[in-house]
Design a protein that fits this description.
This protein is mainly β and 387 residues long. The protein is built from six helices and 16 strands. A hairpin with a 4-residue loop joins strand 12 and strand 13.
Length: 387
């Protein structure tokens, strides 16, 4: 009896609650909307893009199955657009990276891009903020969601740095850019601690020059760059990237050559292989990267990526040294299916393999061990245009 009375009371009160909720929503409409009607047309100049790569991975080490998992391999939210005539902005944040605030530029490490660009004329552009360093090379220039596995140099670099740049476009076939950036996002002490005889620079910078070319009616394109970094007093890093593409109706071939010569080991690969080494001196990394894309139909593509990375320690004080320490191979065959005509989404099935081979010297001197890893994945890739 008591339960029935309670239910009856609740049913009588329910319309009152519904009316109260309805009245509250009416009241809310009296406030100004977040985006006024007069400002709504500005959204026509703004894009919101969710750059996504999602996969089901099956992983192996030395031929032994180690496990399977669903992985958000890439998720980078991007907002870009035009603020005023000739004034543009771009922001991109990576949700698959630790959002630790960096001590040099005071931005989260997960933030790829946060800058303004001003185009005073059709031939010039000026930009400042946290930028994508214009390293050059097709591998780095491509949208990160399209790269299943990066080579050593790109994977272990600070690729997004705060600074300023200027671009000059003499015509539709060529663009030249110059950037002046911080050389890193952390302080010298945070990265290297202390190294006898080497002192922190008051302005650790990176200067980058880049040429993007379009040749033979667009059948050949180039992304070439040279960069110099000042890591510390009298300590520099020189980096060359030569990216080239051959583009035919149903076939595309990309090739990159990359060379990084470092007074201080900025990638920390060699340093991590040597016991009790903070930062090896006189290090060189070299990479060859090749990717082919064959279009079988509007829906199906076959792609194959191969690369090889070399690591050298030229500054090794050992008189019996072998300068070369490691050769690392990468191979990525894939099938890509584009199910929609007017929407950029693809389903992929790939294999990502890595082969690591250390020289006899590196194995004997530093106890390094050869390794082979690979994984099979199926997933999707899309730069999802939300707005």
């Amino acid at each position: 009896m008591h339960i029935r009375n309670w239910l009856v009371a609740c049913m009588m009160l329910f319309p009152l609650a519904a009316i109260a909720q309805h009245q509250e929503s009416k009241k809310d409409t009296l406030y100004k909307p977040l985006i006024p009607i007069s400002k709504a047309p500005l959204l026509n100049n703004v894009d919101i893009i969710a750059n996504m790569r999602y996969a089901f991975r099956n992983e192996f080490d030395k031929g032994t199955y180690t496990g399977s998992r669903f992985v958000n391999e890439q998720f980078r939210l991007e907002i870009k657009g035009k603020v005023l005539d000739k004034l543009y902005f771009r922001f991109r944040d990576r949700y698959t990276r630790d959002p630790e605030t960096q001590s040099v530029d005071n931005l989260s490490r997960s933030t790829d891009l946060a800058y303004l660009r001003f185009d005073p004329s059709e031939h010039w552009k000026i930009y400042a903020g946290k930028l994508c360093a214009d390293w050059g090379g097709v591998e780095f220039d491509d949208n990160p969601i399209q790269i299943y596995e990066y080579s050593d140099i790109i994977e272990n670099s600070d690729n997004f740095l705060s600074g300023a740049g200027v671009g000059y476009l003499p015509n539709n076939n060529h663009e030249f850019t110059l950037q002046l950036l911080n050389s890193r996002t952390k302080t010298f002490k945070e990265l290297y601690d202390s190294i006898p005889g080497i002192y922190e620079s008051k302005f650790p910078f990176a200067a980058v020059i880049n040429w993007r070319g379009r040749l033979f009616d667009g059948k050949v394109t180039t992304i070439w760059s040279y960069s110099i970094f000042k890591e510390a007093t009298h300590q520099y890093m020189n980096y060359i990237a030569l990216g080239n593409s051959l583009i035919l109706p149903n076939f595309k071939l990309d090739y990159d050559f990359k060379l990084s010569m470092e007074n201080l080991d900025r990638k920390f690969l060699v340093s991590n292989w040597i016991p009790n080494m903070k930062a090896a001196q006189g290090v060189t990394y070299m990479s060859h990267w090749l990717r082919a894309d064959v279009r079988l139909s509007k829906i199906v593509h076959l792609t194959a990526t191969g690369f090889v990375d070399f690591a050298f320690w030229n500054g090794n004080p050992d008189p019996n040294k072998d300068k070369k320490l490691r050769t690392a191979w990468g191979y990525v065959p894939a099938i890509e299916v584009y199910p929609f005509d007017k929407y950029d989404l693809k389903i992929f099935l790939n294999m990502v393999g890595r082969v690591y081979r250390y020289t006899d010297y590196a194995q004997t001197k530093f106890g390094l061990v050869n390794d082979d890893t690979y994984r099979f994945s199926i997933g999707f890739i899309t730069p999802l245009l939300v707005l």
